[in-house]
Each structure stands twice: as C-alpha cells, then as structure tokens.
Design a protein that fits this description.
The chain has two domains: about 45 residues, no CATH class; about 55 residues. By secondary structure, the protein is mainly α.
Length: about 140
C-alpha cells in the first residue's frame, strides 16, 4: 500500500477478502472499489471509483496545454494549466475522502498478523515437502 495514497492491489484485496472469519472480511468487502479491485489483473492497482475519469481529464488538459504552448498560444496554455491544476486538486480531495475512513493502525496490525500466518503456513507446506506456489520438493 506504499505511501498511503496508492489503492490496494488485486492480490492484497483478494488475500484479505478471502479470509473468512477475519475481522476485516465484511468491512473490506463493503469498501467502495473493492469489487473492482478483486476483478483487476494480478498486481494491478485499482483507483477509487471515479479517479480514472480524473486521470483521463488531467491527461487531456495536459495534452491540450502542451499543444497550445507548441502553437505559441500562451494565453490558452495558461487557462489549461489552471484547469489541469483544478482537476489535480479535485482528484487529491476525492482520494483523501475515499481513504478517510481507513483505520491505518488496525489495518497495519491485521497485515502483520496475516504475514505471520502466511509464514507459518509456508513453513508447514515446506515441512510436508510442498513448495509454496504449487511446486513439490523432491524428498529422499
């Protein structure tokens, strides 16, 4: 989850959401965007709902601004720079609003607990001659 502004990856969401009985299970599934994250490609980060629209609008404003500068229309470029900045600010506000309800300390504790459980399960697999990830160890 990196710097706190990155949305969760599909693997992280699926890993947490697949643990029935986990205190986070029901809560996680109710968070907007989790359904989209569960359907994303492996390792793909899924932004909160609506942020993709902002990204497209910001890119379009930036391209138009650059084209205006290339054409020597500094006045239009300045107007488009203001629009680009407004869209970036709105996007940042939406991201902050989306992540405001997250109890970061509780989430960090749960992730730590899951890491320990995963290590225990990997060790159990290895002790039984099974390679984590589907492979098998050769035993003598």
């Amino acid at each position: 989850m990196g710097n706190g502004s990155d949305p969760p990856s599909r693997a992280a969401v699926n890993g947490l959401a697949s643990i029935n009985g986990c205190a986070w299970h029901a809560r996680l599934l109710s968070v907007p965007g989790v359904a989209e994250a569960r359907q994303a490609g492996p390792g793909e980060r899924v932004p909160p709902p609506g942020l993709g629209d902002y990204d497209e609008k910001i890119a379009a404003a930036r391209q138009q601004k650059d084209a205006s500068l290339d054409a020597g229309d500094v006045g239009r470029a300045a107007v488009l720079r203001v629009e680009e900045k407004r869209l970036q600010d709105e996007r940042a506000a939406r991201m902050a609003q989306w992540s405001a309800g997250v109890d970061v300390a509780a989430l960090a504790e749960e992730i730590d607990r899951l890491h320990l459980e995963l290590a225990r399960l990997r060790d159990l697999l290895l002790r039984n001659g099974i390679q984590p990830g589907g492979g098998h160890q050769k035993t003598a």
